[in-house]
Amino acid sequence: MRSGSPRLSTRLSAARERAFIGRSRELARFRAALTEDPAAPSVLYVHGPGGVGKSALLRRYADEALTRGRRVTRVDGRRIDPSPTGFALEADTVETPAEAGRPAVLLVDAFEHCQGLEDWLREGYLPDLPAGSAVVVASRLAPAPHWVHDVAWQGILEVLPLAALDRDDARTLLERRGVREDLRDAVFAFAGGHPLALSLAASVAVTESSTADDWSPTPDVITDLLTSLVGELPAGHERLALETAAHTLVTTEGLLRAVVGEEDAPRMFAWLRGLPYAELGRQGLFLHETAAEVIDRDLRWRDAQGYERMHRVVGHHLLQRAQNAPEDEAMAAIRALTHLKRYGPMGPYFTGITREGDVYEDPLRPEDHDTAVRMTADTEGERSARLVRHWLGRHPEGFWAYRSARTGELVAFMAWLRLTTPGEGADQDPVAAAAWHHVDAVAPLRPGQHLLMSRFMVYPADYGGISTVGHLMQLRICRDWIRSRNLAWSFIVSPDAALWSGLMHHLGHRQVAETPWDNDRVFTTFGCDWRVTPLEIWFDRTQPGALHPSPPAGRADAPAAALGGEEFRAAVRDALRCVLKPSALESSPLLHTGLLDDRARHSEADPTDLLRSLLAETVERLKGTAGHPKAYQALYTTYFQRVRTQQGAAQRLGLPFSTYRRHLTLGIDLVCDALWERERALRALS
Fold first, then answer.
1. What's the confidence (pLDDT) of residue 555?
2. Over the range 472-498, which residues count as b (16 or more CB within 10 Å of their CB) and which as e?
3. Cβ atoms of 471 and 350 closer than 8 Å
4. What share of the chain is helix, strand, coil (3-state, %, to 5)?
5. Distance CA 395, CA 446 (A)
6. Predicted confidence (pLDDT) per residue in 205-226, tens digit
7. Contacts 24+ apart (CB under 8 A), 595-600
8. CA nearest 67: which of 10, 105, 15?
9. Concatenated DSSP letters for 529-543?
10. Are 287 and 234 within 8 A, CB to CB?
């Protein structure tokens, strides 16, 4: 590019400036902050309801700062790890060594998602910024009173409540969006001065042939607007992409590839970026929260089966990402996966977790041990306190601390124990003894395997309840469920079985023991054998369900048959022999097992097609299994290539018949084992 030639960013900035409406006072205060005048504020705190224009104002602030040659750093509270470390890492990502120490412009959007960092931000982070720095914090929540009234911050902090646009500014916005003059009053009467509602209404009204007299959307401000928008989608992939973006915490092109396919994903991602309620962040694209919620509800109601299929595909993509993400990205991947659990019957356990940042996770340090013991004594009693001391001596690495973002003090801890020696701790801890008794009775550990137990989850401020701190503990637990190697069993111990049994059952953990304790307390232990619960089946168990569920067509009168192990294996062997003969598969006992019932929930395909697909997928998995490529070749050639005889299959493979038979027998056994393991897992979850 020639020196001095105009940049595209300059045109984009100019376009945003032309499109920006109103907010003259807010712009004036920010310009004053940029002057570094000692009498001007250094920190602006903008707050207002969702969709009122906070993000648009911050984008305008960024353009203003850049035109004045200032370095701009952006932090999105929705996308960071809500901890002091996570915030600081994000805020420092764009600083180069040459820029270190220079006055910066820090723009923090969606701060309500990490509002608990407010005291830390005020007392720890902001005072260390270089003199002359300008900071804008945007949140749905007003700042804490003690910040506003702190004498030290007088003249440095200015609070800017962001209200709706007045009538003149709203009409100007509609004019610039191309809404006919005769419709502007009607649209304003419907949307008021709410910028998001105005933008959504404008995107519909600009294509309307209605007159001012009959343009009258229903009083559900955004719901009917978004219903109209979704109804205008030109093709199915756009609708599916929109549904996906509304359903997920953040949407990437990789995620869309899993949903709409390799070819259409780039086009769909570009289309989503152009929507008036979509924004692009460092980790991907996300929709405005109000819009996302309404779109998700609308699409779920209109196509319950399609909605479940989308949820399943998205979930498996995110599950794979959670399994394989680098260590420093693991918790973000787990958070994205866990976000899906807020849909459906388990929603009450998750939808109330809106304020994060007050507390962050950290390893429990030796200097915390006495505090953790005292915390346990105050919460559960001296007997539990002695056991905390016992487990700290045996497995200090299994303890996680949850600290105040403001002070760093310990507010909660969890003992998430990894045990490899059968019976370990049973002589001291009755709860551990009950878990080991269940393991020994049902399925003992094999060499190299381990179990995980959440022996203590102590948060005195909300002991045993649903809380943000408890959610952080759950993220840690889910991380290890998904990423641990050689995990045999996991156990969750709760003092409130009535509260948590629904979620435990949903996640495949069954009640295995009750241990009476002091002060009339009873600890309930929930357990899961992961050797018969593949992660894919575990995730499928978390499907949200339709808003108005109904049994799959043609399956309501066909309950799953409880075949014994040998009967099941015989049915698999018969099905393999008939895999290319649809009429023969119609009588297979496998059609009425849990395997096929599970698949039928997510597909309208013919049951025999589902069975054929299941067999083909299971055989195909052997292709990439170490040590079994010849077993795969023998199976595939024999059953999927229409050879007339096994002798012909052996000849095609260039193998002696005895060698071929050995590989084929091994392959059949492997397929039978894999399908039987999945069938047992589904029965355990039913």
1. 39
2. bbbbbbbbebbbeeebbbbbbbbbebe
3. yes
4. 55, 15, 30
5. 21
6. 666 555 555 554 433 445 555 5
7. 595/675, 595/678, 595/679, 595/682, 597/555, 597/558, 597/560, 597/682, 598/537, 598/540, 598/682, 600/552, 600/555
8. 10
9. EGGGS-HHHHHHHT-
10. no
> Does the structure show a pLDDT above 50 at 559?
no
Q: Which two tokens stand for residue 551?
A: 């049994």
What is the per-residue pLDDT across 461-496, written as a single tens digit (0 to 9) for each? 999 999 999 999 999 999 999 999 899 999 999 999
How far apart are alpha carbons 685 and 538 in whole angstroms? 9
pTM: 0.72
Q: What is the pLDDT of residues 502-540, one digit of tens each?
A: 888 888 888 999 999 998 899 999 998 888 776 766 776
Backbone angle region of 101, left / alpha / beta, with phi > 0 → left and psi within -120 to 50 → alpha? left
Closest CA to 354 of 343, 337, 333, 339: 339
- Sign of the CA dihedral with 610 first, then 615, 618, and 619 last: negative
CA distance to 308, 383, 392, 415, 517, per residue, from 386 (Å):
47, 5, 10, 14, 13
Q: Give φ, ψ of 449 to 5 degrees.
A: -95, 165
What whole-number distance in Å separates Cα of residue 417 and Cα of residue 337?
23
Of 143, 141, 205, which is closest to residue 177 (Cα–Cα)?
205
Calculate the alpha carbon distances from 364 to 76, 98, 358, 374 in Å.
Answer: 29, 37, 17, 14
SS3 680: helix
* Band of pLDDT at residue 669, cut at 50, 70 and 90: very high
Q: Is 81 in contact with 332 (CB distance < 8 Å)? A: yes
